[in-house]
Amino acid sequence: MQATAFILAGGKSSRMGVNKALLPIRGKRIIEVIIDELIPFFPNLFIVTNDFETYDFLKVPLIKDEFQGKGPLAGIHTGLKKSCTDFNFFVACDMPFISGKLAHHFVQICALGHYEAVVPQINDKLHPLFSVFRKKTLLKIEQYLQLDHLRVRDLLGELNVYYINEKELSNIYVGNIEKIFYNMNEPTDYEQVKSWLGIINKN
Predict the structure, then answer these.
(1) Binding site for Mg(2+), residues?
(2) Binding residue numbers for GTP
(3) 193-202 confidence digits (pLDDT tens)
(4) Where would I find the MobA-like NTP transferase domain in this sequence (predicted)?
């Protein structure tokens, strides 16, 4: 089945101090690693950003938030409004270990179970920025944004969501499950990523 992928790159990276999507790992920027992982499974791929100049070098279609300054929920809204497919995968731009295969599996779960969204819940923590949303959730999301209700998890409470936990994921994915959903907010998070990759700083 067809699905579209959207990389959300609208954050300010204030805690990181630099644009975290552009941090290098093994000769590529993190956002390039994410694109390379997703493209084989999602030939229709967009970056949601309000800074076209920064990401133009990627040669990937860029789209801008209609509701600017309203966080990830606005990015999901932007993607759904642009999408021509029923199923849509969303991921943050600071998750260097994502699995395109797993993302595609989420799409299949969403379709087979007739859910409105599929969201991982690992060790009781939700990861809505590695998730699938149906096109038909657009109206509800738009209503939330118009009312300035910006918490994605509040929205999930009103949708038919399939929450996939670590036990189920262990049956379909071999590897460190928590690492897939690891996102970077602070410099120490980036150092952790480099440590996992065996990258040693040269002073």
Answers:
(1) 94
(2) 8-10, 20, 65, 94
(3) 999 888 655 4
(4) 5-156
